[in-house]
Design a protein that fits this description.
ABC-type transporter activity, transmembrane helix, transport, ATP binding
Length: 231
């Protein structure tokens, strides 16, 4: 756990460094672009070509920084996905096989039942989706928060008007967060749980019908299977 925490902290530091490099390259590219327009208007070919070369290097730096952030995000996602999948396998399959889990086994030593209707959906679909969403959220929060701090500091150095602009941006962000979390309540977890359980039941019913299609056809059990799928 400690090594995992240190690994996450190092990844976040690298994301901050990549964001800082991206901001520096973007600023240098903007300054060079203004100089390029000036040299082009003055007809100075040598300095104009040098500004083009500088802008090419800035574009390369922006591409490297962007890909570095994406790589670090995927690395965090892969680590979380591997750890969570291992934990779920230990929790689900330590004392039971998949049939006992899906069909409903006897109670465990702690009194909890082993019936899990959507174990396959949790491991194969929910875990990758959850890890991808959270890693993207964490990366956006770290990179965006660092950039917001840097831009707010730059605005504050522009005087009272810049400080008011920075304060307005911060107030808008916090107001949007408050509205989204308090005035628009949505039980996303419950809806996702019910959707995953329904998807797992439908997949199991379709798989059973596909495996036993010959027996269902010979015994004329199509109506029964259709009624089972419709419920």
């Amino acid at each position: 756990a400690a090594s995992g925490g240190r690994g996450l902290f190092s990844h976040l530091l690298l994301i901050v460094a990549a964001s800082f490099g991206s901001m520096r390259c973007a600023r240098l590219k903007a300054q060079t672009s203004r100089q390029s327009v000036l040299y082009q208007s003055l007809g100075q070919a040598g300095p104009w070509f040098r500004t083009l070369r500088t802008m090419c290097w800035c574009t390369f730096g922006l591409a490297v920084a962007s890909n570095a952030v994406q790589y670090l995000q995927k690395s965090i996602e892969r680590t979380w996905r591997r750890n969570l999948t291992h934990r779920l396998h230990e929790a689900y399959f330590r004392r039971h096989n998949y049939y006992r889990i899906a069909q409903g086994a006897d109670s465990g030593s702690d009194g909890s039942t082993a019936a899990i209707l959507d174990a396959d959906v949790r491991i194969a679909e929910d875990v990758p989706r959850l890890c991808a969403s959270i890693s993207a959220l964490v990366t956006s929060l770290v990179a965006g928060g660092f950039q917001a701090i840097v831009f707010s500091r730059a605005l504050c150095h522009m005087g009272r008007r810049g400080a008011l602009a920075a304060a307005f941006v911060q107030a808008y962000c916090w107001a949007t967060y408050a509205v989204g979390n308090n005035l628009l309540p949505e039980d996303i977890a419950d809806k996702s749980r019910r959707t995953a359980a329904s998807r797992s039941l439908l997949r199991r019913a379709l798989c059973r019908a596909e495996v036993h299609c010959q027996a269902i056809s010979a015994l004329q059990g199509g109506a029964v299977e259709l009624d089972d799928l419709s419920r």
